[in-house]
Amino acid sequence: MKINFFHRKGNKAAQYWAGKIKDNIKNKYPSIGFVGKDPDVVIVLGGDGSILEAARKYHHESNPMILGLNLGNVGFLASVREPKNFINSVNKFLEGKFTISERMVLNVEILRGGRQIFKGEVLNEIVAQSILGMVDLEVFAGNICIRKIRGGGVLVATATGSTAFNLSAHGPIVMPNIKCLIITEIMDHNIPIPSIVVKHSEEVAIKINNFRQKGILSVSKIKNKADVVLVADGDKIFPLQKGDVIKIKSSDHLVRFVELESNYFFKSLKDRFSVR
Fold first, then answer.
1. Of 105, 71, 65, 103, whose CA–CA distance to 260 is shortest?
2. Are residues 56 and 88 both part of a single domain?
């Protein structure tokens, strides 16, 4: 087995635990190697954002298993939530006592005048959002308009992302191994409508119809002013214009997350929401 460690620069806690875990592996499992490219498993030290970043970075290389060790606040994506359990949990994994949860990835593209101007992959969600004002948009599934929104915007999430922005927008929590797309409005000024969950094989499209142009936000990388933006996994930001069409569909790729406990997702919910 070939292992790589991933954490964000300057994270001293992650650096400490990476060194401690590596020493433990060298002592107990000397046949295991450490690599920088094409790993079999990536041990991620950090929060859910770091785990998402690692999954996006490595899944096109060798589709490694992602073993997340939580050093953040929430830890929904982590395999282990408490640092006191890191060493024993890594040992358990290296002894083959784990299962794999395959997570869906979404492909997203923006068409402007029929021409592709943006493409990317996301694990959590795609958001089409007005910065401060309102945006008029339509949402399509199966080439049928299923939602007209005049408000803050709309997000399309995977089941993995159901516990992220989707949850904050009062969308449903979905078990992460269910392959689906969750469509949730953001502050619609019309009568609120519940989220819609569609099958993973459906293509979802969002058409940006209208918004008031004020040039509120400056997107520094491309030096464009924007009032409505696409945000992918809270990381990539792209300015949108009237008439833009965002197309979203499931990818052929699946990201593999390590699970070390049965019913881990339900235990995470219990911990997160303090169910007694």
1. 65
2. yes
